[in-house]
Amino acid sequence: MVKAIKVMLIPNNVQKTKMFQYAGASRFAYNWALAREKENYEKGGRFIPDAELRKEFTKLRHSDEYAWLLSISNNVTKQAIKDACTAYKNFFKGLQKFPRFKSRKRSMPKFYQDNVKIRFSNTHVKFEGFSSGRKANKQKMNWVRLAEHGRIPTDAKYMNPRISFDGLNWWISVCVELPDCRETLNDDGVGIDLGIKNLAVCSDAVQYKNINKSQKVKKLEKQKRRLQRSISRSYEKNKRGESYCKTNNVIKKKKLLLKRNHRLTNIRKNYLNQTISEIVNRKPRFICIEDLNVSGMMKNRHLSKAVQEQGFFRFRKQLEYKCSDKGIQLIVADRFYPSSKLCSCCGNIKKDLKLSDRIYRCECGNMIDRDFQASINLKAYGERFAS
C-alpha cells in the first residue's frame, strides 16, 4: 500500500532563501523545456524526448550565462524538464489542456528532491545540495526541521518527494510504501446523505453538523470580508491613472487575508477528515453514498457558495481513500436514484417533493426527516449491491 504524507517544514532564513532558489530554477527549467518543445513543433519537428532535452540543458548549465544553475542540484532541473515533457505529451493524448508557462507571480513555488538521496529523521529532513561544505556546521544547513515529529517513517521506501510553498509555509509531500492493514469489519452497513443543512446524515441516526454555521467560521468569514473591502478601498485610493499601485499597506493586508483564507480552509478540511475518520472507524461492511452532480449544483447562484464550502467532492475522494485503506466496500448510488422521494416504509415515490419540504409525509402515515430517510434508502440500496 502506498500512502501520501504531507508535513509542514520549519526552515530558517538561509534555508528559505535556498528553497526559493531551487523553486526558481525548477520553474526556469520547466519553461525552457516547454519553449523548446513548442518551438520544435512550430518548425514541423517531432517530439523531443526528455532525455535529449536534459543532455542539452546540462550543456546550458556549464555556459557562462547560466552559471548560476550550477549551485542548484541537478535532479531538481532534470525532473522539471521531465514534468514539462509529460504535460506536453498528455495534451496530445487528450488527457489535459495545453501546459502553460509557469509565472513567478502566480504559480506556486515548488521543486523535486531525489527519492534516493533524501533522508528523514524523527525531527528533520535532509535535502540534497543545500550546502556542499564538509564541515559539520555547514552540513547542518541540509537538515530542515519538520513541524510534526515521527510522522514520516525513517526506514521506508520514498517516492516522488515534492516541496511546495503555499504563500505562508513550506510543505513536503512524499509517498511511502507501507504494508497493508486489513481489519475485521462489522456485518452492518452505513448509508450517508450529504446536504447543506447538515454535512452528513447517517442511517444509524448520527448527524454531522454544518461547520460553516458555527460561530468560529462566521467570525472568520466576517474578518475576511472586511479585509477584502479594505484592500479594495486601498487600491482605489492609490490609483494612478488607469493603473493600480500596490503599496506596503496593501501587501500587509493581502498577507492577513491569505492567513484568514488558510485558516478557513484548514478548519473545513480538518472537520471533513474527522467526520470521515469517525464513520470509517465504525468498521462497517459497506458505505453507500449518492453520486451528486456537484458541477450542476454550482450553477445555482443561490446554493453555489454553500455547496462550495461544504466540499462534497473532497468528502467523496477522502472517503474513497480511507475505505480502500480499511478494506471497506464503497458503493455509489445511481445519480437518478430517488433517495429523498422514496418512502422507506411502503416504497411509494413522492414526485412533487420540494427542496423546502424538510419533513417527508407519505399517504401510508410515514412522517420522517427527509435527510434521515434518504440515508435509510441509501443503506437499503447498498445492501442490494454489497458483495
Can you tell me about this structure?
With 387 residues, the chain is of the alpha+beta class. It folds into two domains: 2-177, no CATH class; 189-385, no CATH class. Helices cover 42% and strands 18% of the residues. The chain is built from ten helices and 16 strands. It has helices spanning 13-42, 50-61, 74-92, 136-139, 215-237, 248-280, 294-297, 304-310, 312-326, 370-385, and strands spanning 2-10, 110-112, 119-120, 124-126, 143-146, 158-165, 170-177, 190-194, 198-202, 207-209, 239-240, 243-244, 286-290, 329-333, 359-361, 367-369. It has a seven-stranded antiparallel beta sheet with strand order 2-6-7-1-5-4-3. 24% of the residues are buried.
Concise structural overview:
This protein is an alpha+beta fold.
Describe the SSE topology.
Elements: E1 2-10, H1 13-42, H2 50-61, H3 74-92, E2 110-112, E3 119-120, E4 124-126, H4 136-139, E5 143-146, E6 158-165, E7 170-177, E8 190-194, E9 198-202, E10 207-209, H5 215-237, E11 239-240, E12 243-244, H6 248-280, E13 286-290, H7 294-297, H8 304-310, H9 312-326, E14 329-333, E15 359-361, E16 367-369, H10 370-385
Helix pairs in contact: 1-3, 2-3, 5-6, 6-9
Largest sheet: 7 strands, antiparallel
In angstroms, what is the radius of gyration? 26 Å
Q: Report the count of strand segments.
A: 16
Strand % is 15-25%
Distance between the termini: 22 Å
How many domains? 2
Shape: globular
Q: Element order, helices and strands?
A: EHHHEEEHEEEEEEHEEHEHHHEEEH
- Chain oligomer state: single chain
Mean pLDDT rating:
89
Domain Transposase putative helix-turn-helix: 1-45
Protein name: Transposase
Domain Probable transposase IS891/IS1136/IS1341: 173-301
Coiled coil: 210-237
